[in-house]
Each structure stands twice: as structure tokens, then as C-alpha cells.
Amino acid sequence: MGERPVFSVGGMETVAKDAGHGGAAVRVMGTPRSGTNLAKHLVENYLKVPVVFDQGFWKHGVFPALMNGRDIDHGGLPIIVMSKDPVSQILSWFRLARNDTIFKPNGNLASFLTRPFEVRQDFTKPKRMEYRFRSPADYWNQFYFAMDALRRAGVPVHFMGYEQLVSTPALSLHMLSHFLGRTRPFDIRTGVEIPGHTLDASNDIDRAGTHEQTPFDPARAELASALARIGWRNASLILRAVDDDVLAATGRAGFRQTCREAVGAKAVLRSLVGFW
């Protein structure tokens, strides 16, 4: 095994854990359930680049304003930012909040969407970091606005949509290989296998768990499926709260119209009967 890549965070040298591959490391960030673990799996297995999650700062935390004099200190690594459309994303957070781990439970879906939203690290107990936002949509806005601000400041940041990674993994890896400056870009004709089961949540400290994994459901990446589950009334609450600039930054400039076109009878019915 070669030497582990070294980078600087806040003026201190940090060693990136080697994932068993050659080449420089890359940082992957994203909100919970945005596909960070899937991105890590594909980047390490197909591009042979080790992935850093939580060294220097938490992969799910709003990017901190680390400074080195007048310069932004981003840790010296290129950053892949994973995102999922806000409707599907926030619905998945609601499901996850029921476990009372990374998110604090907050009643039914309607109250979950509109009340203060708490996010907490799940692997640094008891000294874990916690955040509070006005709502889940506020967290989505703040996280991705900060990452886009980092990109606009000249830091190497590449946004990747979860939907894109799942539906066209070879093309996505091809784009990532260009972003990482590979001399031989990933061949889009290469067969890429998406794991048949959901991946364990992982970080740079703990080993992956060994609990029983659930089958991977491609429908979770489909907006129409999320709309049918969440209902148009609740989806409208999210759409009113998300920021247009942030939607554009994540590659979803026409997302509001996309939602209107994707909404079906099930979404309307759930709104009428108050399913949630």
C-alpha cells in the first residue's frame, strides 16, 4: 500500500485514509441520503481514487468558513457534491428521522416540513456537532448554497445529481474523471454495476456496519414516485421554500415545472385525503 495522501485543513496537515487505491484523494460531500456512500463506492471501485468523508469537517455539515489569511482553506482536495432533488430528498429525511439518529423526530410530515429542523452528527458521541435550521428546506438551501459559493470562489467543486448517478453511472463517472483531471477519462462504454442493496452509512472513523441491508429501490430516485408518496400539498410546501439559485446550482433550474409535469393522480389524491 502506498503512502496516504496528505492535505491541509486550517493550517494543519492531515493524512487522508487510503482506500487501497492509487492516485490523489477526493472529498465527497452532500446532505444525508443524497448518495454520498454510493458515490464513494463507485469512485473508489471504478476510478480507483480514495474518497475522504469526515477529515477536517463533516460531509453532511454546512461548509465552514475556514480561512488561511485572506484565502479560503478548503482542505486541498477537489470536492464532489452529491445532491438529490429536494422533494425526494426531504421525504427520505422524514423516513430517516423516525429512527432518531441523525435527525430529531418531529411528528407527522406536515409538521416536519414547517418546524425547526435539527441535524446532528451520528458518529462522534458524546461530543457531536449539532445544527438547527428553520426547516428541512432551509438546510437543503444552506448546504448547497455554501457549496456553490465555494465553487464560485474558485475551489474545485463538482455537483453530481443522485438521479444522474443512478440512471447513467458510466457517463457520470466519465464526467467525474474529467473533473479529477484523469489522463484517461473513464470509458462510457464500460459496464458499471449499481449495488443491489443499500450501502451502509460510512465515515472516516468507523468501519462499515454488518447489519442486514435492504434491496436497492431504483424508484427512490424517481421524482414521480416521491410525489406520489408525499402528496402535492406537501410538495408545494417544499417548492415554496427552496431557493431558485440553489436549484440552478445543483443542475435543476427547471425543477418547479418538472414537478408540475411529474405530479400524478396519486399525489393529488393524497393531498385531498390528508394521508400524512
Salient structural properties:
4-stranded parallel beta sheet; globular; 276 residues; alpha/beta; two-stranded antiparallel sheet
Characterize this entry briefly:
The protein is an alpha/beta fold and 276 residues long.
Please give a structural write-up.
The chain has 276 residues and is of the alpha/beta class. It has a domain of 144 residues. Helices cover 38% and strands 13% of the residues. The strands form four sheets. A four-stranded parallel beta sheet has the order 4-3-7-10, with helices on both faces. Strands 1-2 form a two-stranded antiparallel sheet. Helix 1 packs across helix 6 and helix 7 runs parallel beside helix 11. The N terminus is likely disordered.
Provide the fold topology:
Elements: E1 6-9, E2 12-15, E3 26-30, H1 36-47, E4 51-52, E5 67-68, E6 71-72, E7 79-83, H2 86-97, H3 109-114, E8 117-120, E9 130-133, H4 136-152, E10 157-161, H5 162-167, H6 169-179, H7 223-230, H8 232-241, H9 244-249, H10 255-262, H11 265-273
Parallel strand pairs: 3-4, 3-7, 7-10
Antiparallel strand pairs: 1-2, 5-6, 8-9
Helix pairs in contact: 1-6, 7-11
Which residue ranges are poorly predicted, with pLDDT under 50 across at least 5 consecutive positions? 1-22
Q: Structural class per helix/strand content?
A: alpha/beta
Helix content: 25-40%
Largest sheet: 4 strands, parallel
How far apart, in Å, are the first and last alpha carbons? 52 Å
